[in-house]
Amino acid sequence: MEQGLTQTAFAPALSPTARRRQLREKAIAGFITLMAFTGIAALILIIVFVAKEALALFTDPAARHEASFSKMFLAQDVPPGRPPFRWQPVSRIPKVSMIPLFVGTLKTTVVSMLVAVPLGVFGALFAAEFAPRRMRELLKPVIELLAGIPSVVLGFFALMVMSTVVKDLFHFDRPLNAMLAGLGLALAIVPVIFTVSEDALTSVPRSYREASLALGATPWETAWKVVLPAAAPGILAACVLGFGRAIGETMIVLMASGNADVISWSLGDSARSLSATIAAEMGEVVVGSPHYSLLFFIGVQLFVFTFVLNLIASTWTKRVVRKLTGGAA
Amino acid sequence: MKHATRRTVGLALTALTGLCAFVIVAVLAFILANILEGGAAGVTWKFLSQPPSDGMMGGGIFPAIFGTAALTLLMTVAVMPVGVLTAVYLHEYAPPNSLFARWVRVAIVNLAGVPSIVFGLFGLGFFILFVGRGMDRMFGHEEMYWAQPGILWASLTLAVLTLPVVIVSTEEALRAVPMDHRTASLALGATQSQTLARVVLPGALPGILTGAVLAISRGAGEVAPILFTGAAYFLPDLPTHLNSQFMHLGYHTYVMATQSPDVEATRPLLYATVLVLLMLTFALNLVAVIIRTRTRRKAASAH
Fold this sequence. Notes:
The complex is a heterodimer. Chain A has 14 helices and 2 strands, in the order ααααββαααααααααα. Chain A is flat. The longest helix of chain B is centred in the last third of the chain and has 40 residues. In chain B, helix 6 packs across helix 8. At the A-B interface, helix 1, helix 5, helix 6, helix 7 and helix 8 of A face helix 1, helix 3, helix 4, helix 5 and helix 6 of B.
């Protein structure tokens, strides 16, 4: 309990029943504390066991030869006309460059952010500042509902419905491309950005708004120049969180991106992301092979990226609270 | 700028933010309408109660519904005690300013941000290859028995994934139990664990149920973590053992949408499957929202 209502025994001579009771209480408290360790343990086990399967890339000579760091991250000597970066781990001569996967992940993620950030942040600003109470109370559960749609359903929707629309709209050659995957991803991260931004905006004290309005600012000026800057760290955190989700999201990209390992910044070309590569290839891989270790190594990278992004986001959300309460919290 | 102009510009920009909110809602409405329209005709009793036939071109999705239900049931059994007790520790037992409690919180926040596909890798690396192999060695199985994808490993993987959901909502529920109830119970001579079991947990029960429902709806929709921990493309039999593979609504959707030889022919079945999955998760979310608003209203009127 926050107030620390734990009972402390002060009497030196306890009856046997009281002592048994006290012992039982201690045992229960110990058990509950032990259970609380599960979260930490899970996080540690995740990193240990994903990294463990990737370790062969550093220790096993065969794997080290097939998937060395230079092969993963640097341009390779290839016959003229062939691309120097390729991801084809199951061809006769395996090519294991991560660069196309980075490009693909970045491409789809950036598209999704360009769509989801304005929609989410402006939508949250509307809900927090301008919407009548009734409308806000309706808006929040509706967006929660959007957050509840399984990503495989969003992937399905992108694949079956959005693909033809996007292809015709932008005159793309392929129905499955980075733009489509990015738009699908945007659907998945809008709720995240909206919810976290809305929290940050509503935690700005009323006095800020009243002061601004009293000085003659219009409601929009108040929202834009006072409330939004005050909530800025929280909104940045929302964007970082959304970015992390977009990097890690798997099913939508797997179903909508076309999964080709091309390096191109054109949004009409297909893209292959880090997460979708794991999902697509892990099913057929030989356990313990270099390819298998490579997929786990991609997992380690994803874990590290999102871990760092989450740490940044949580520091920033804390900063909003501290800033607005003047360091009291 | 004159005040009137500033006001007009402001109103225009306000309308823009309203438009953004409207677009989000409109997209959601469109998705729902599209799936409802495409799938409603396909959801018949026959579709819900029969296994697929003709190489997925006909029949129903009963094994996938059964598999999803069994998977989430096992997951719930695994995640609830751990999640609830962790929240109890954080809110009832942790000393103020406890460093351990702070670490637990950091771990939970980060656990919530781990990509779902990484959970899949974890399930494969830890549960199947480490625990499963260890169990096979211990029980002397000659062939792989536990060290293979199965419903137990898939549900435990999902349990780890949904752990933060349960912890966060349980803690919220504990916070809603008035402090007076605890002090009153302790003042009457009850121990802390008696207070917990007879006063705090019953008071927090609706909130805890909300957490369970949210975890189930999240777990039922996740496909990436079960791709290589137990979901199967097609199985004639329902899962009977903890190491059986199973069919799953989400995985079924993915496979039918991407690997069907004739997408046009399977489209109605596909839409019907998606509709069932969506209705399932929405129904669960709706239940959670209803319980939560009712509890909040009750808590508000109690003060």
